[in-house]
Amino acid sequence: MTTDAVTARPVTTGSQSTNLALATLAFTISFWAWNLIGPLGVVYTDRLDLSATQKSVLVAIPILVGSLGRILTGALTDRFGGRLMFTVLLIATIPFVLLVAVAGHFESYPLLLVAGFFLGVGGTTFSVGIPFVNAWYDKSRRGFATGVFGAGMGGTALSAFFTPRFVNWFGYITAHVIIAVALAVVAGICWMFMRDSPRWTPTRESVVPKLIGAAKLRITWELGFLYAAAFGGFVAFATYLPTYLKDVYDFDLQAAGTRTAGFAIAAVVARPLGGVLSDRYGPRIITFVSCAGAAILAVWMITEPPLEVTAGVNFVLMAVCMGLGAGSVFSWVAQAAPPERVGAVTGIVGAAGGLGGFFPPMIMGATYDAATHSYTVGLALLIGFATCAALYTLFGVREQRASEAARP
After folding, report:
1. Count: domains in the chain
2. Helices (H) and strands (E) in the chain, counts
3. pLDDT in tens, 68-103
């Protein structure tokens, strides 16, 4: 049993579970806020008469800050701890949720872009949670822990399902106020009940050298590339799928949101499974299955399989592949990253994953063929990227490199 010399607080199973649950809750609500614009993309398109490109930019813009901001928040977590960082980031997201409400109410596309850009703050909590839960668990169970925490990306499912309904039930402004209040409540819960692990010690190294040190590790960029394929694909689908379903299958807002929620739930369930399987069989094989499966399923998606069962199976299996990969890659990070650099490595890898979700919606919007309602070009690019990731998983990331990176 490990004990903190100052507080004499033991690491117990109960404290591990409590803090993992709180981190997952914080991640879930922040991801809901991060994905507020995507489920309403169809509404904004109709009200503001947006082109396909304008629509894709609006949906993708929160991902940018949510991705790049992870680099900084990951390094800051190594210094200040998860309890403080979760609380601060949840509170910092609130004004931008309300700004989105104001921008949408006045139907201002430029203001929506600004609000959406800063709404990305909510997406940075991912790189807080990974080092936070890593510190609570032994190395042999970190795949499980990061997988469970990663299931908080189910906030996108909650957003896809409930946000359009909240707008219908309570009104546009009130729906956003509800999310803002939820962020405040969870921030309070985190501050009162969350604790940093007794095993965690704050690093005194300044942020910039810490990030430079993490950036010099080859494993950081290798796993960043793989995470861009797995988690980036999930983020792209979770944010753009309502638009895709409307364009290809002519679903209305709520029907598209319901199916997008189903997609996200499948990925959420698969993510901890990816971590557990990685603990048992190694993250390499699970990551390969994820990327190769996504490439095959994208080929099937190009054929526009008929509703409901065939298309549903296609989307659910795609979500499972991406969820497995997201869990396995961060199990790999937990194994390969030096303990004192987990936050910094997490930040860079997480940023790469987020950026992997930023560009696909832009590409999908730019390559959409309105005459045939086809996304063939965008899906073909997905096939190529996923195939490269699968091959690199098998032949590019060598065990020697990972073990070398793991040495302090």
Report:
1. 1
2. 17, 0
3. 888 888 888 888 889 999 999 999 999 999 999 999
Q: What is the distance between the alpha carbons of residues 77 and 40, in angstroms, rounded to a whole number?
A: 32
Q: Which residues of 81-91 are buried (b: 16+ CB within 10 A; e: fewer)?
A: bbbbbbbbbbb
Is 196 part of any domain? yes
Q: What angle do CA 308, 313, 317 make, to 5 degrees?
A: 150
- DSSP label at 3? B
pLDDT tens per residue across span 27-77 = 999 989 988 887 887 788 888 888 877 877 887 788 777 878 888 888 888
Tokens at 276, concatenated: 């557990």
DSSP string, 18-67: HHHHHHHHHHHHHHHHHTSSGGGHHHHHHHHT--HHHHHHHHHHHHHHHH
3-state secondary structure 284-347: HHHHHHHHHHHHHHHHHHHCCCCCCHHHHHHHHHHHHHHHHHHHHHHHHHHHHCCHHHHHHHHH
CATH number reported for the structural domain that contains residue 260 in this entry: 1.20.1250.20
Element (H, E) at 78: helix 52-80
Structure tokens at 21: 């649950």
2 occurs within a structural domain: no
